[in-house]
């Protein structure tokens, strides 16, 4: 991965604080993944992220419990969110995720180990999973 891929757009000084946090988090995700754990997660105000809905509960559970370089099945995520019979509903929550990558719906795979679907396309999902696996292996050395 070249350093050119890790440049932040011009005009960063004109960004609002939440946008700066989001930019810093995404920069770290792609260029310095070890830093993502120490950065604050950007503030989210989307209605789907309310914790009183099953979708919100699933998305926050995914963000909190499934770490960089890990994967979880739809069924496992349903169990973590408190309803072991809601694997299909987890799929619906992944489809409605308003902030993919930050809330890492690409880490949710089928029980068979196949990647499953992704709003950004299956090639993007495979790339993100490979990126995380490669970065995690680099950190292990």
Automatic annotation (TrEMBL):
Q: Which UniProt keywords apply?
A: DNA damage, DNA repair, DNA-binding, Metal-binding, Methyltransferase, Nucleus, Phosphoprotein, Transferase, Zinc
* Principal localisation: nucleus
Question: Which transformation does this protein catalyse, written as a reaction?
Answer: a 4-O-methyl-thymidine in DNA + L-cysteinyl-[protein] = a thymidine in DNA + S-methyl-L-cysteinyl-[protein]; a 6-O-methyl-2'-deoxyguanosine in DNA + L-cysteinyl-[protein] = S-methyl-L-cysteinyl-[protein] + a 2'-deoxyguanosine in DNA
Q: Which terms does the UniProt entry file under GO BP? A: DNA repair; methylation
Mind telling me which Pfam families this protein's record contains? DNA_binding_1 (PF01035)
List, alphabetically, the InterPro entries matched: MethylDNA_cys_MeTrfase_AS, MethylDNA_cys_MeTrfase_DNA-bd, MethylDNA_cys_MeTrfase_DNAb, MGMT_N_sf, WH-like_DNA-bd_sf
Q: Cellular component terms, GO, for this chain's entry?
A: nucleoplasm
Q: What is its EC number?
A: 2.1.1.63
Q: Which Gene3D superfamilies does the entry link to?
A: Methylated DNA-protein cysteine methyltransferase domain (3.30.160.70), Winged helix-like DNA-binding domain superfamily/Winged helix DNA-binding domain (1.10.10.10)
List the signal peptide residues: none
* Residue intervals of the Methylated-DNA-[protein]-cysteine S-methyltransferase DNA binding domain: 59-133
Give the cofactors, semicolon-separated. Answer: Zn(2+)
Compartment annotation: Nucleus
**Could you say which enzyme class this protein belongs to?**
transferase
GO terms for MF = DNA binding; metal ion binding; methylated-DNA-[protein]-cysteine S-methyltransferase activity
Q: Which family does it belong to?
A: Belongs to the MGMT family.
Question: In UniProt terms, what function does this protein have?
Answer: Involved in the cellular defense against the biological effects of O6-methylguanine (O6-MeG) and O4-methylthymine (O4-MeT) in DNA. Repairs the methylated nucleobase in DNA by stoichiometrically transferring the methyl group to a cysteine residue in the enzyme. This is a suicide reaction: the enzyme is irreversibly inactivated.
State the protein's name.
Methylated-DNA--protein-cysteine methyltransferase
Q: Give the species.
A: Himantopus himantopus
């Amino acid at each position: 991965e070249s350093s050119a891929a890790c440049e932040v757009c011009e005009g960063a000084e004109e960004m609002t604080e939440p946008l700066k946090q989001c930019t810093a988090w995404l920069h770290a995700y792609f260029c310095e993944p070890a830093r993502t754990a120490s950065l604050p997660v950007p503030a989210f105000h989307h209605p789907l992220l309310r914790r009183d809905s099953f979708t919100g509960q699933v998305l926050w559970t995914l963000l909190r419990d499934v770490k960089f370089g890990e994967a979880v099945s739809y069924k496992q995520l349903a169990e973590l969110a408190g309803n072991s019979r809601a694997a299909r509903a987890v799929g619906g929550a992944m489809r409605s995720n308003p902030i993919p990558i930050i809330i890492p719906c690409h880490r949710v795979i089928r029980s068979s180990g196949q990647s499953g679907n992704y709003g950004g396309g299956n090639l993007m999902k495979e790339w993100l999973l490979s990126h995380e696996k490669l970065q995690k292996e680099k950190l292990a050395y």
